[in-house]
Specification:
Strand content: under 5%
Number of strands: 2
Largest sheet: 2 strands, antiparallel
Order of helices and strands: HEEHHHH
Length: 174
């Protein structure tokens, strides 16, 4: 018998010992098999034969209780969902800080990319606001000229106040 062929592993062990689940039993019992001596007698199942035992806990498990894995020939992971969850939880607990740092780095990179995408729109809005402000200033100066009020810069206003314009003196004296 060729030991490399998967079909050769389907045969029952050639030991004189009787399998613990009985000779005529079609399926293994749905109890965990913890003893190494008992595990030695578990048959190796070909991919796609279900129910089959989970290699980690030894429980006979239906196909729906194995997580989907498109990278495997059977389309399912090797371990049952319960063992896979325990493995995933243990990994997360051991690497929680690293995983959080990775997620935070991705989040910050996405935020920076979003901000960079907003720059052209922001520039357009700033330019539009500056144009509106300049138009408002022009309208205000035109109105002041029509009313005959001198258009003074802030420096000129300060200079006149320092010198003491007559209308300011009149308010102070009155």
């Amino acid at each position: 018998m060729n030991s490399r062929c998967w079909s050769s592993r389907l045969a029952w062990p050639t030991s004189s010992r009787v399998a613990p689940w009985g000779e005529g039993s079609r399926f293994l019992p749905r109890v965990p098999v913890t003893s190494l001596a008992v595990r030695k007698f578990l048959p190796v199942f070909a991919p796609g034969n279900y129910p089959r035992p989970c290699p980690k806990c030894g429980v006979m498990t239906e196909k729906s209780d194995f997580p989907v894995d498109s990278g495997k020939a059977s389309g399912r992971k090797s371990y049952c969902k319960a063992c896979d969850r325990r493995r995933g939880r243990a990994y997360y607990d051991a690497h929680k800080d690293e995983l959080y740092a990775q997620r935070e780095a991705v989040r910050k990179a996405a935020w920076q990319a979003e901000l960079e995408a907003m720059v052209p729109e922001h520039r357009k809005r700033v330019e539009a606001t500056q144009r509106l402000h300049a138009a408002g200033v022009r309208r205000h100066k035109k109105l002041l000229r029509e009313l005959g009020v001198p258009d003074l810069s802030p420096e000129e206003v300060s200079e006149r106040a320092r010198r003491g314009a007559p209308w300011i003196r009149g308010v102070r004296e009155g």
